[in-house]
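Technical annex, item 7. During the second reporting period the consortium partners agreed on a shared format for inverse folding records so that results from different sites could be compared directly. Each record opens with the tokenized structure and is followed by the designed sequence. A conforming record, contributed by the partner at site C, is shown below for reference.
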């Protein structure tokens, strides 16, 4: 069919196309599709076509001296942030793919990174959570990528697995391996951002882009718990802010996904699955939640069905490139396409899925080892905006593949 469309449109060079019938992507011959979906051939069948989307063949690569445990790619910042197993937080320039700055943030592997812009100063702030049982907030210097520690918080004697800034409440949430969720008042850093900038401006020329320790203009402030919740019976492996006001979602090794009313600090819905959850992500502006699992699957949940609380759809392991089912480490929705999500696995693959298809629309053998984390990167170059999937793995590399 792709050849027919190219001929009719007189395209040169030829462009590959995808086809969709009844909002389902066609991934077999037309005859098999019609038979398997029991489509009435006595009626006119409408077929939609669109250019094929896929990951680029040659990814950009950033080499690091340690495993990459967490990635965050804030839009319009010009930087992406990697939390590494050597405890370093590294800032990467998305234009040159060079390391723009680094700081010895923790004494143990960094498990999670979250970024936001401080309303009072306009500075980019980064929160990190680590196996050393601490949460730290950093201010990033836009001119050189240098980072200065502003505040530190502790968990209850357990590895901090997730950190997430809650913009609507100006609050930093963290969760740990013991199943606890904490809320820190990020306003504890008020005044430190501007003070630190003034000090930085006086000493910018004396500072190196690569610092072996945390840059500080004063002693970091202690983050205080606003409240804490015993959220799960096992490690909290994922956390995200809901689309409805006051709602937060968590997933865990205890096989459950939970919805929380943070005003009452109560669980209002529990979605129970058959497997450990390794990560989760909520689709912006919608009700679908994606979770990843060690059985190689990605599961979708409809947050509106609280009483039913059943899995809405299961995407099977990608068996096209290997016969071995591998742990799916992370899942992230595309920031530009509501039908697309990316998932990483321990086979070294990054797979991009369309929820209207039963197989991945694109698969990249991105890493020589396990893929531990991923994120989407939006990058503007002039009038054009490109979208890439960025991944980090046990091969100590960050890979960025454009998706188009």
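Designed sequence (site C submission):
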């Amino acid at each position: 069919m792709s050849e027919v469309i190219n001929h009719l449109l007189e395209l040169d060079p030829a462009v590959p196309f995808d086809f969709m019938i009844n909002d389902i992507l066609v991934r077999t011959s037309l005859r098999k599709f019609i038979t398997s979906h029991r489509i009435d051939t006595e009626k006119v069948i409408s077929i939609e076509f669109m250019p094929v989307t896929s990951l680029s063949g040659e990814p950009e690569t950033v080499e690091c001296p340690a495993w990459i445990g967490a990635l965050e790619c804030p839009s319009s910042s010009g930087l992406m942030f990697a939390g590494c197993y050597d405890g370093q937080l590294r800032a990467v320039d998305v234009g040159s793919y060079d390391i723009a700055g680094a700081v010895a943030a923790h004494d143990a592997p960094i498990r999670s990174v979250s970024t936001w812009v401080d309303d009072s100063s306009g500075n980019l702030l980064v929160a990190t959570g680590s196996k050393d049982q601490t949460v730290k907030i950093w201010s990033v210097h836009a001119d050189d990528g240098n980072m200065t520690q502003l505040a530190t918080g502790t968990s209850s004697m357990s590895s901090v697995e997730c950190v997430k800034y809650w913009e609507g409440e100006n609050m930093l949430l963290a969760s740990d391996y013991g199943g606890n969720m904490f809320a820190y008042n990020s306003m504890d850093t008020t005044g430190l951002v501007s003070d630190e900038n003034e000090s930085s401006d006086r000493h910018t020329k004396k500072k190196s882009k690569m610092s072996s320790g945390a840059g500080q203009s004063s002693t970091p402030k202690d983050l205080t718990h606003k409240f804490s919740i015993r959220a799960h019976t096992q490690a909290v492996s994922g956390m995200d802010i809901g689309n409805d006001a006051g709602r937060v979602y968590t997933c865990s090794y205890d096989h459950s996904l939970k919805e929380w009313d943070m005003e009452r600090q109560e669980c209002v819905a529990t979605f129970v699955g058959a497997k450990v959850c390794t990560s989760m992500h909520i689709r912006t502006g919608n009700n679908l939640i994606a979770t990843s699992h060690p059985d190689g699957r990605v599961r979708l949940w409809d947050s509106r069905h609280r009483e039913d609380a059943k899995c809405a759809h299961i995407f099977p392991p990608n068996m096209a490139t290997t016969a071995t089912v591998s742990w799916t480490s992370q899942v992230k929705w595309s920031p530009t396409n509501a039908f697309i999500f990316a998932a990483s696995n321990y086979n070294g693959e990054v797979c991009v899925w369309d929820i209207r298809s039963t197989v991945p629309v694109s698969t990249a053998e991105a890493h020589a080892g396990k893929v531990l984390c991923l994120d989407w990167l939006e990058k503007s170059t002039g009038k054009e905006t490109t979208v890439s999937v960025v991944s980090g793995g046990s091969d100590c590399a960050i890979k960025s593949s454009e998706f188009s």
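Helices lie at 2-9, 30-36, 192-203. The first helix runs from residue 2 to 9. All partners now use this format for quarterly exchanges.
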